[in-house]
Amino acid sequence: MPYEEEIPPYGNYADIPEKLNELSRHIIGAAIEVHRAIGPGMPEEAYVNALAIELSLRSIGFEREKPVDIVYKGIVVAKGRIDLLVEGLLVVEAKCVDAIGPVHRLQTLKYMRILKQPLGLLINFNVPMLKLGIKRIIDSDRNQI
What is the per-residue pLDDT for 7? Predict the structure, then answer.
């Protein structure tokens, strides 16, 4: 089934606390600034590094490459790394791909569930206009891990 026909596993925007919505707007503004300066087609690392600089300039706290445990049947089997965890609340995954696919959305959603956070941003910088590459991912079932 084509991805556009899938029912998304994300919730209602109204379920998100205003603090997170406001924070996401600030991050999106920072990402737009980065995209205006760098443009599409550069390595993902360039965008993550530039976004970190932009968040710092805006006095927004974050952790880079936040490690998270990948657990199978109660046993840690690997470590994942979140590109940016902003203010300890919002997962930001940066991509530089031709198109965001289901696996990118599900990766972001899984990181959100591991941290028990309801909102994440998946940002694909490889687009002509950044608004075409921003996906807000909402987890309506925060109890799943």
Answer: 37
